[in-house]
Amino acid sequence: MQHCRAMRFERxxxxxxxxxxxxxxxxxxxxxxxxxxxxxxxxxxGAPADVAQLWVQPRNLETRDLFHGPGGAALxxxxxxxxxxxxxxxxxxxxxYDVRDPxxxxxxxxxxxxxxxxxVASRVLWxxxxxxxxxxxxxxxxxxxxxxxxxxxxxxxxxxxxxxxxADWSWYENPFASTQPxxxxxxxxxxxxNWDWKTSNNKVYALAGDDGTSRRVxxxxxxxxxxxxxxFPQFLKWTPLRGMGQGSRNDVAGFEEQALIKKVEGEQxxxxxxxxxxxxxxxxxxxxxxWTCRLMARISDRQWRDAFRAARYADAEQQRFIRKLxxxxxxxxxxxxxxxx
Length: 341
What we know:
Layout: H1 2-33, E1 40-41, E2 82-89, E3 96-100, E4 106-111, H2 115-127, E5 135-138, E6 142-144, E7 154-158, E8 163-168, E9 173-174, H3 180-192, E10 202-208, E11 214-220, H4 252-257, E12 261-265, E13 268-271, H5 278-281, H6 286-296, H7 301-310, H8 315-334
Parallel strand pairs: 1-9, 2-6
Antiparallel strand pairs: 2-3, 3-4, 4-7, 5-7, 8-10, 10-11, 12-13
Helix pairs in contact: 2-7, 3-6, 6-8, 7-8
């Protein structure tokens, strides 16, 4: 009997440090991981936000080149030239490199599972009017410098040429929180199932003009956590650790499983969303969904195919992704059935 009691004591003693470690870890990390319940507008001067810094009406949407994207063919990286290694970037989920081409242009390269969906998501956001940097995908390329591995297919994002990052911006506090384009941006990310809404993924760029002046634009980048499904673990619901994944990436089967909308009650939309940013998602209304889906519905079949061709998806995967994207857009458009155009 005494032996049994001793065994029980030893087990409790061994477990105590583990429990204490978990309690301390959650106590320390939780305040830094709190997600605000709703976005709020922030301006420096109190003047109305300049929405053009976030979104510009895409009057030429139907003719935009979604194969080459915002950088066009002229800025596309050359797969036949060597790229000099400047630095290895191991700060995010996907491995990457900072490189320089023979012309002196600097590129951020991302390899791995996120490279393809980022190119597609960037093309789609740019098509409907949101600012995006020049991005491309190279299936093979040459890396020179102090490295041992052979790089795989990479997302190339131009980092030089008259623009530079000057700040991050938050989904929860920004000049545009009350505007239709901001809410449309949230809906577009839900349609693409981009769930990685960290502040560090959102950048303010200073763009140099020909006259020597510069202007600011607000950009959502690092869109690689797209085209999958959201599956945030329920046991972490109240302690959403920032580095914890909230879904899959580049996962056509998972993407097909998830709808856009679960139900609608009046103007309130309940989305088929399983992430940590319900405070943002819950602010969206029927009008926000319809506004965004009307823009995305203007993307032609050819443009959809071009966006996926740019990311080097095989034909069968292209068709599956495009079919599901158009199905989600149709879900949103159906909310306007009683609303005159």
